Amino acid sequence: FRIFTRYKSPRPELVMPVFFCIGIFLYGLILAIPADNDHVLAIQFFLATFVLILVHFVEHFRIDMDRASEICGKSMVIFTIIYATLALNPGLPFATLLVEWFNEVSLSSNAEREFLDSATTTLALGTAPFLFVPFCVVAIRLFRRFRWSDAIWLLLYAGTILTSGARGVIVVALAFLVLAALRLAAPLVRVLVVIGVALAFVVVIPELLATTNIFSDEEVSNNAKIEHFESYLDALDMSGGLFGNGLGSYYFSTGKNGLTQHTEITPLDLARYVGIPLTFIFFMILLLPRFKIFEVRSTQFVYTMAFFLYLILSLTNPVLINSYGMLVVVWYWTKLRQPDATANAARSWNRVNNRAALANRPIINRPGGLA
Question: Could you tell me how far CA 184 lies from the centroid of its own chain?
Answer without folding.
Answer: 21
